[in-house]
Amino acid sequence: xxxxxxxxxxxxxxxxxxxxxxxxxxxxxxxxxxxxxxxxxxxxxxxxxxxxxxxxxxxxxxxxxxxxxxxxxxxxxxxxxxxxxxxxxxxxxxxxxxxxxxxxxxxxxxxxxxxxxxxxxxxxxxxxxxxxxxxxxxxxxxxxxxxxxxxxxxxxxxxxxxxxxxxxxxxxxxxxxxxxxxxxxxxxxxxxxxxxxxxxxxxxxxxxxxxxxxxxxxxxxxxxxxxxxxxxxxxxxxxxxxxxxxxxxxxxxxxxxxxxxxxxxxxxxxxxxxxxxxxxxxxxxxxxxxxxxxxxxxxxxxxxxxxxxxxxxxxxxxxxxxxxxxxxxxxxxxxxxxxxxxxxxxxxxxxxxxxxxxxxxxxxxxxxxxxxxxxxxxxxxxxxxxxxxxxxxxxxxxxxxxxxxxxxxxxxxxxxxxxxxxxxxxxxxxxxxxxxxxxxxxxxxxxxxxxxxxxxxxxxxxxxxxxxxxxxxxxxxxxxxxxxxxxxxxxxxxxxxxxxxxxxxxxxxxxxxxxxxxxxxxxxxxxxxxxxxxxxxxxxxxxxxxxxxxxxxxxxxxxxxxxxxxxxxxxxxxxxxxxxxxxxxxxxxxxxxxxxxxxxxxxxxxxxxxxxxxxxxxxxxxxxxxxxxxxxxxxxxxxxxxxxxxxxxxxxxxxxxxxxxxxxxxxxxxxxxxxxxxxxxxxxxxxxxxxxxxxxxxxxxxxxxxxxxxxxxxxxxxxxxxxxxxxxxxxxxxxxxx
Length: 738
Hints:
8-stranded parallel β-sheet; mainly beta; globular
């Protein structure tokens, strides 16, 4: 039986504001017998009149709407900020009746915002230039916004695994980092990134050089619980993939950069070091406090549109659960639980707006654009609902979560025919960098269409779940469409989250199509060969990838490495590199235009039309080296010099390890060049080298990236890469642009 209801909102995954359009959940409605009843609410509303001159509170307007019968009802929110200590709750009694609808929306010209923010006032200056304010009881400032701009929790430097050695029970390094001398180390957290996972656990004790952490956060972040993922998983904090702590945060000893703050749980104060130009006597300081802003549960024939959501809290990371990230913003919680190798019992992050659940159609009114967007969740049997034309920005975690992690749910709990379309998502995952822009679990007939996603730390769109675990090999996944999305600058290198892609899939999904998407700069400038365009990971099967434009990717434009991912097809795509053939029985690549150094007109048209509003396309630059002649000082095995000119960033050259090892391309004639791209090989071998043209020498310290980009003005026939000492020159690609 289909549920005709809206799901409960669990709060936002960001300390943030959203332009959020939830769904109209209704079958086609009958024509109203009389004109609609219009009620008004305002931030300072009162009484029961609910007129434009005498508006009510939102609850007052809701209660008045419940008395209306025989016509449509519109509740218009007047301009302003609606501060919420508890959520606005809409339930079955707030449904449209007898074929009529109820609409909650902004009054004409208004920009209403439901806010969970708590103002922090009474700032006093300290001798060291910081400012301190008391925090009201019951408020824990995990995030702080000054005049609408996010502040950063005071953080220190990275600590390598050789010093901060993590075990199942704790971590060394307290002496070397100075944590053993901190005034309140138990207010501080360790932030750790391991491949695609992110962990935030609070310190609970320091004994000599050893730190212990809140439980169950630390146990759930470590191996040995049999709940952290597949048996092959080596991304726990005590695994071989652990390379150290990204940073410790929230200690006054770390408060040394303008724009940083620290929370003192004992004194119940927050201390902030202002940025240039900020005056704390006049500044508006806000911290998220209320976790739920709008709860819609059991309603139908209801529209919510044009309403912003601001500063909703995400409280789990402040508890002893912490943030034991598993993948895509989902966490492992609870001290005990069932074996969970397929991630069936992971916990999704919170959401700001009303995620629809039940049959219906979306309302596509223009959004109210707001800063720092919160996310939405569609779960527990969401069907025939839409999230459209919304804007999300500066999110602590992911923007949109659709569906659940149970591969074979009952009919009432199956996610079907949902639509996520024409939304704009920028800078999500600011705090929890393993989050994705749009995540979907076990969905059928899902449409993710014409969304724009930009500047995300990990994957952009993720559809499917369960890896290759036995309990997940059969699921309800089928007939999903990921079409005409614009995904740019994702898998951001600075955030050190690896093994993802602009579009990421899991599981057998018969009838699923990924087409018409524009993907540019996924893991561009990476420190290793990692980060994909379209990533058909693990059990991904029966998926068609066609007519996508995929450029400037750190690794593979399409990745399908697992033999048990079968019958995938990649056809008619445009890209500037090549990729290994698809794995799995029946998987094929056909009619793809690869290794391009200019996008043809058809590809430019596809890319320009992708996303919520279309947009510019980064045209590829002509590669003068493509027709050149490559040589090198020596060759190891079959890794010939010409492999750096084959338009494939997945093949490598390699010299022997020797003093002054070199690689060179002869362009055939003197050319005026402006840019050189140097793509390191798969092992990031090439380091500390000179790039030499006929009239210019540029030294590069440290390892080359994928790519290292050098801008210069040179007239030259040759480009030569020479090691400064003893070592190899090993390259995936060298491009020389006029």
